[in-house]
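Design request, tokens follow.
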């Protein structure tokens, strides 16, 4: 998910407090689709599937290369955890990005200005939830831009999913992988690569993740669907919609900000 992702919900934290989607790795799984699986597909399905005869890893490699070549992408995610909802809009470029999180448990905007600096702006609920601040203290920081340098322990979890490379990493399910039958999502013909949760999902969470890839060249990602269960057995569902490949992503430094080190308990 995508994204992603200072997840405010306890559901799908993107990083140490949410996901730690870091690095640029894609699961390349060798092996051919089993003959049983091929036999189950009709000849009409096979002819409509440009990935017939390819392994899931090869399909992922095609999609990864296509997305990286675009250089930027727009991702919208909706997640639900036992009635707690979260809506995340991300615009990720090669080195800059912006993410707006709207949640029933707090709201947050994240700006990735460079590899050395990010900025956040949250409401009082966000500061209460994330930094365990009392309400009056949290209100002091609400609406202010907070500067988060790369040296801060908060930086990596915040900027995860804010570059196009980390988006692809986060969207990639883990092995074992399989290809799904062709279907239609957002009006596009797609084939899914299904597997376990990707590398950004927090430890203790279990479930499945399906990356749906366009069946039309250049085979860009279209959607990601997550079904997860946490250690308490509660279910989380989330769906990412991917679009606007190659969009312009430009982020500027806020005019006024305070350092994150000024927040009690932050570093």
């Amino acid at each position: 998910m995508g994204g992603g992702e200072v997840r405010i919900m306890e559901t799908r934290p993107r990083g140490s407090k949410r996901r730690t989607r870091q690095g640029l790795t894609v699961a390349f799984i060798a092996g051919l689709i089993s003959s049983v699986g091929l036999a189950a597909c009709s000849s009409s399905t096979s002819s409509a599937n440009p990935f017939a005869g390819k392994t899931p890893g090869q399909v992922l490699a095609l999609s990864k290369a296509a997305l990286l070549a675009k250089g930027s992408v727009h991702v919208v995610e909706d997640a639900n955890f036992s009635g707690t909802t979260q809506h995340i809009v991300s615009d990720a470029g090669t080195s800059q990005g912006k993410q707006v999180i709207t949640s029933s448990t707090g709201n947050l905007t994240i700006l990735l200005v460079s590899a050395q600096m990010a900025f956040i702006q949250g409401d009082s609920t966000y500061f209460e939830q994330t930094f365990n601040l009392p309400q009056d203290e949290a209100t002091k920081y609400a609406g202010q831009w907070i500067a988060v340098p790369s040296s801060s322990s908060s930086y990596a979890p915040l900027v995860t999913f804010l570059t196009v490379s980390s988006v692809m990493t986060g969207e990639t399910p883990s092995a074992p992988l399989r290809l799904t039958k062709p279907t239609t999502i957002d009006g596009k013909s797609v084939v899914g690569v299904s597997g376990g949760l990707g590398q950004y999902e927090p430890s203790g969470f279990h479930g499945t993740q399906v990356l749906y890839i366009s069946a039309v060249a250049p085979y860009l990602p279209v959607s990601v669907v997550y079904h997860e269960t946490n250690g308490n057995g509660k279910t989380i569902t989330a769906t990412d919609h991917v679009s606007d490949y190659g969009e312009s992503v430009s982020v500027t430094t806020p005019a006024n900000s305070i350092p994150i080190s000024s927040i009690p308990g932050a570093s």
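Comment from the thread starter after seeing the answer: thanks! The chain is about 20% helix and 35% strand.
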